[in-house]
Structure formats: C-alpha cells, structure tokens
C-alpha cells in the first residue's frame, strides 16, 4: 500500500498575513490543486496534516474516503513536527509513502506514477528537474525511524543529506516538481 502525507499546517509567514493554501490560483484555492493531484495518483490514502487555520482548510478540501485529516498540535515548531504527525498516522499496511507539500500545485499524477514505478530500486525516490531535487519524495517504510529523528523547521531535505546512498534521483522534464508558492509574487508570476 502506498500512502501520501500532505503538509498543510504552516503559517504562510512570507505571505503578508494571507494563508497561501486558501489563496486562489486559476480560481481554485491552492491546497485544492495539491489534493486533487495526489488523489489522481494510485495512492491508497492521503493523510493531510493540518495546523494553522485547520478548520478553514479542512472545510475547503471537503470529505473523501481516501483522505484522513490529522492535526499537528505543534505546527508552530516547524515542518518536522508535521512530517512526524503524518508518519504517526500512516496505515499499518503502508509499504511506502510520499511526503508532499500543500503549496506545490503543479505536481501531477504522472510524477507520482513515475516515482512509484521506481520505488523498489532504492529507499528514497526523488524527482529532479535540471538536476535540482524536487517533490514529492517517496520513502520506503524502512526509512520511518530515521525520519522521526528530524527536528525544527526542517523538511525531508535533511534526511536526503544524511542518506545520499539511499536515494534514487529521477530526472523529469517537469518544472512543477520544484515550483512552490511562498510569497505573493509567486502567485503573480
């Protein structure tokens, strides 16, 4: 079984008071693009980690039998706490899981499928664009304990740095794997 953890707990600190996940892109809230793309892939469950403005985001996303909402009570301490919250809520049948970011709306199902096809080759599978590592990152469940050691506002990048020998980088021609939305300018470009 393959699961996905979608991080949607952050405070959008670089957005001048706006929550980037509810800001519309092409007439649709940013988070809904990320959720739709993840659900279009063959994952069995999508664990959405909420924190800042959790009620607003959960209501925007709505219910789906493959979605499990979880709340990270420590979301203000950084991304690592959200990743751990997601991992702690994985199904017992999970063999591999994605860590996905709620502010990356251009990751399509083809990227998920490409990574899933390569999952048995290494413990960590990462899409790259022009040799730059992107998202989502697929981890074998065997990486769970190592990931649970991260702290602070550190995402999966620290795990990648510490486990270079376990990574399979897959070059894509898809800039969406490296394009996230952090500032108002990102929405205008």
Short overview:
The protein is of the alpha/beta class and 189 residues long. Helix content is 28%, strand content 24%.
Topology:
Blueprint: E1 2-8, E2 24-25, E3 28-29, H1 30-39, E4 45-50, H2 54-61, E5 67-71, H3 79-88, E6 96-101, H4 109-117, E7 124-129, E8 132-133, E9 137-140, H5 144-147, H6 157-162, E10 167-172, H7 184-188
Parallel strand pairs: 1-4, 1-6, 4-5, 7-10
Antiparallel strand pairs: 2-3, 6-9, 7-8, 7-9
Could you describe the 3D structure shown?
With 189 residues, this protein is of the alpha/beta class. It is built from seven helices and ten strands. The strands form two sheets. Strands 1, 4, 5, 6, 7, 8, 9 and 10 form an eight-stranded mixed β-sheet that branches. Strands 2-3 form a two-stranded antiparallel sheet. Helix 2 (54-61) links the parallel strand 4 (45-50) and strand 5 (67-71).
């Amino acid at each position: 079984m393959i699961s996905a953890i979608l991080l949607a707990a952050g405070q959008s600190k670089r957005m001048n008071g706006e929550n980037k996940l509810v800001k519309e892109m092409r007439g649709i809230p940013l988070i809904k693009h990320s959720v739709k793309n993840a659900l279009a892939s063959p994952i069995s469950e999508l664990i959405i980690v909420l924190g800042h403005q959790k009620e607003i985001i959960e209501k925007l996303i709505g219910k789906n039998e493959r979605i499990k909402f979880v709340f990270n009570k420590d979301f203000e301490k950084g991304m690592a706490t959200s990743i751990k919250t997601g991992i702690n809520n994985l199904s017992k049948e999970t063999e591999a899981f994605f860590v996905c970011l709620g502010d990356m709306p251009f990751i399509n199902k083809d990227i998920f499928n490409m990574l899933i096809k390569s999952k048995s080759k290494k413990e960590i599978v990462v899409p790259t664009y022009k040799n730059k590592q992107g998202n989502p990152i697929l981890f074998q469940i065997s990486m769970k304990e190592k990931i649970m050691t991260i702290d602070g506002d550190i995402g999966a990048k620290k795990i990648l740095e510490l486990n270079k020998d376990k990574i399979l980088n897959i070059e894509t021609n898809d800039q969406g794997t490296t394009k996230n939305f952090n500032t108002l300018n990102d929405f205008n470009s």
